[in-house]
């Protein structure tokens, strides 16, 4: 099924109205407003803001309000931070669509009901802290009919089905596991199914593609390698030793162009900081293998300290064009030392 079809189908469903996902205290909260947010004290304009606050109830006007806010401000910030109890379901999805088209990331402080669907629009999505509360529940008609009536119209039965189909298309488009919608049915309109951090990560509700998994050991030939993958599983960091080439630290990235790696082989003269030691420019090799770009740094196992697995992040070492965006190659430290030491002691053929 093409994304063009999904997009057209989704907007066909989004013409529905009259359904809400009201979280706690929706009736008493003010409608959503947008403002600048920053860790810098007294920052109140676009030049110093590092995120956009989105506080209050999502209404039918909220998507247009957000577009107006970003159009009238020359924004440096590209993250929308939600603190919202919910609101209008369809407006929440429309807001998420705008966020995705405009390529904003999202963060959540408290984000429940309709806010949860707006949050899914973020290109990258994260919880702002360990105290974040993120909840979903079943949708309901904001102007309900008498539930004791014995007869309902065809529209009464048809509209919820169309809306659920729209939710499924929306979740698919945003790259979220459809089990999230099943979890939403566990809680009625006056309840909440809170999604914890581990569930959010498993379901791709939170999504930071450049977050690296814990280092682990995997077999390679007659030996082993240490490996860590990013959340997208399209890139990996590897530490290994071969009897022919020696020890190395390698990055494989199927989305990266080998030309970018090649232009960044040369540092500003000090060498590449790899695993707590410096690797000279001459000890770096780039290759393209099965359409995947790789760059290998050949290391002296006696000198490495396993402090971190970060590359292309130090402005004192690399020029601006070689500083990877989004902290793309800030590798994991969990399990690094143990896995790397095992791999470097077991050289493969």
Give your account of this protein's structure.
This protein has 349 residues and is of the alpha+beta class. The chain has nine helices and 18 strands. It has helices spanning 3-13, 62-71, 89-101, 114-119, 154-173, 179-184, 197-202, 258-263, 336-345; strands at 19-22, 33-37, 51-55, 79-84, 86-88, 105-112, 125-127, 133-136, 140-141, 193-194, 216-220, 223-229, 235-242, 246-253, 272-274, 277-279, 284-289, 292-298. The strands form four sheets. Strands 2, 3, 4, 6, 7, 8 and 10 form a seven-stranded mixed beta sheet that branches. It is elongated, with a radius of gyration of 24 Å.
What helical percentage do the residues reach? 25-40%
H and E string: HEEEHEEHEHEEEHHEHEEEEHEEEEH
Looking at the structure, the CATH topology of the largest domain is: 2-enoyl-CoA Hydratase, Chain A, domain 1
**Percent in strands:** 25-35%
**What is the CA-CA span between the terminal residues?**
44 Å
Q: Assign the CATH superfamily of the largest domain.
A: 2-enoyl-CoA Hydratase, Chain A, domain 1
């Amino acid at each position: 099924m093409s994304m063009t079809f999904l997009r057209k189908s989704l907007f066909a469903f989004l013409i529905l109205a009259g359904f809400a996902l009201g979280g706690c205290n929706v009736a008493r909260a003010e409608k959503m407003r947008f403002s600048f947010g920053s860790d810098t004290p007294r920052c109140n304009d676009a030049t110093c803001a590092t995120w956009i606050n989105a506080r209050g109830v999502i209404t039918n006007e909220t998507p247009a309000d957000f577009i107006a806010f970003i159009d009238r401000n020359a924004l440096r910030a590209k993250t929308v931070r939600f603190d919202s109890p919910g609101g209008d379901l369809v407006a929440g999805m429309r807001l998420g669509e705008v966020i995705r088209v405009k390529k904003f990331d999202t963060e959540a402080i408290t984000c429940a009901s309709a806010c949860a669907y707006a949050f899914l629009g973020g290109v990258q999505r994260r919880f702002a802290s360990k105290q974040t509360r993120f909840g979903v529940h079943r949708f309901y008609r904001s102007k309900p009919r008498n539930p004791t009536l014995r007869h309902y119209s065809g529209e009464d039965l048809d509209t919820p089905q169309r809306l659920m189909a729209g939710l499924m298309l929306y979740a698919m488009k945003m790259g979220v596991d459809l089990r999230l919608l099943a979890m939403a049915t566990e809680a009625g309109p006056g309840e909440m199914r809170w999604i914890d951090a581990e569930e959010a990560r498993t379901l791709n509700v939170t999504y930071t593609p450049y977050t690296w998994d814990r280092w682990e050991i995997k077999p390679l030939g007659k030996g082993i390698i240490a490996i860590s993958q990013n959340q997208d599983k399209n890139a990996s960091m590897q530490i290994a030793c071969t009897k022919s080439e020696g020890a190395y630290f390698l990055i494989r990235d199927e989305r990266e162009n080998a030309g970018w790696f090649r232009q960044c082989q040369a540092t500003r003269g000090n060498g590449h900081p790899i695993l707590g030691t410096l690797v000279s420019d001459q000890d770096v090799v780039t290759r393209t293998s099965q359409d995947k770009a790789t760059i290998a740094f050949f290391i002296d196992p006696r000198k490495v300290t396993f402090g971190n697995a970060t590359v292309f992040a130090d402005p004192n070492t690399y020029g601006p064009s070689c500083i990877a965006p989004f902290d793309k190659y800030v590798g994991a430290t969990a399990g690094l030392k143990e896995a790397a030491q095992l791999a470097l002691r077991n050289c493969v053929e």
